[in-house]
Design a protein that fits this description.
One of its GO terms (biological process) is L-amino acid transport. This is High-affinity branched-chain amino acid transport ATP-binding protein. Keywords: Amino-acid transport, ATP-binding, Nucleotide-binding, Transport. The protein has 235 residues and is of the alpha/beta class. The chain folds into two domains: 2-79 and 152-232, 3-Layer(aba) Sandwich (Rossmann fold), CATH 3.40.50; 89-151, no CATH class. 38% of the residues lie in helices and 27% in strands. The chain contains ten helices and ten strands. The strands form two sheets. It has a six-stranded mixed sheet, with helices on both faces. It has a four-stranded antiparallel sheet with strand order 2-1-4-5, covered by helices on one side. β4 (57-62) and β5 (65-66) form a beta hairpin. The longest helix is centred in the last third of the chain and has 17 residues, at 166-182. It is globular.
Length: 235
């Protein structure tokens, strides 16, 4: 069953044509990754799915419902959560306050809080600490946990490994796999670390200058010579 369908989407930033007729599909239970160079339009696509900026043309469908022109808060209520690039937690708020904001007055707050503390034991240790005083890895854990507190069916992750030490990156990717397998959350992952992303993902898309140029299973893309040359220099 298709959870998200992006069909012929064009997006502009002012006069800049950032996305050119994007077509992709994400099915329930999948981890799908989008790889590409800096400036290819990866983050723009996630933000367009969330309604800011709006698609100038084309349609975005979530579980059969057209969400192309819905306000962002309504898109979130339908079951899409976004952990943006750069984490963007509330630095002056504590871990607990950040998680409360993510929960949006959910009646399952206590249950979900325990789930997050099980997924991210470090957050339990730091629950009274201000977000801005934590390490980059801890802030990334908080950003993902805050998104999960809304009980999304689709989690959009934008560069979760950016700027993190290899050991923390490994932990973050293990958590993404666990969220997908045990929590049954569908994941759309944007990641510059193409090797890790394609190893983890069921399927992937390649974005070049606002165009989808290639798609396949994670393993198929890992084996493509052009992917190896462009994105997997260290592997």
């Amino acid at each position: 069953m298709s959870v998200l369908t992006v069909n012929g989407v064009h997006t502009y930033y002012g006069n800049i044509h950032a996305l050119h007729g994007i077509n992709l599909e994400i099915h329930a239970g999948e981890i799908v990754t989008l790889i590409g160079a800096n400036g290819a339009g990866k983050s723009t696509l996630l933000m367009t799915i969330c309604g800011n900026p709006r698609a100038a043309a084309g349609t975005i469908t979530f579980k059969g419902q057209d969400i192309t022109y819905l306000p962002t808060h309504e898109i979130v209520r339908l079951g899409i959560a976004h952990a943006p690039e750069g984490r963007r937690i509330f630095p002056r708020m504590t871990v607990m306050e950040n998680l409360q904001l993510g929960a949006q007055e959910s009646p399952y707050f206590e249950t979900d809080l325990e789930r997050m503390f099980t997924l991210f034991p470090r957050l339990k240790e730091r629950h009274h600490q201000r977000g801005g005083t934590m390490s980059g890895g801890e802030q990334q854990m908080l950003a993902i946990a805050r998104a999960l507190m809304s009980r999304p069916q689709l989690l959009l992750l934008d560069e979760p490994s950016l700027g993190l030490a290899p050991l923390i990156v490994k932990q973050i990717f293990e958590v993404i796999k666990e969220i997908n397998e045990k929590e049954n959350v569908t994941v759309f992952l944007i990641e510059q670390n193409a090797y890790h992303a394609l190893k983890l993902a069921h399927r992937g898309y390649v974005l070049v200058n606002g165009h989808i140029t290639m798609t396949g299973t994670g393993q198929e893309l890992l084996e493509q010579p052009e992917i190896k040359n462009a994105y997997l220099g260290g592997h």
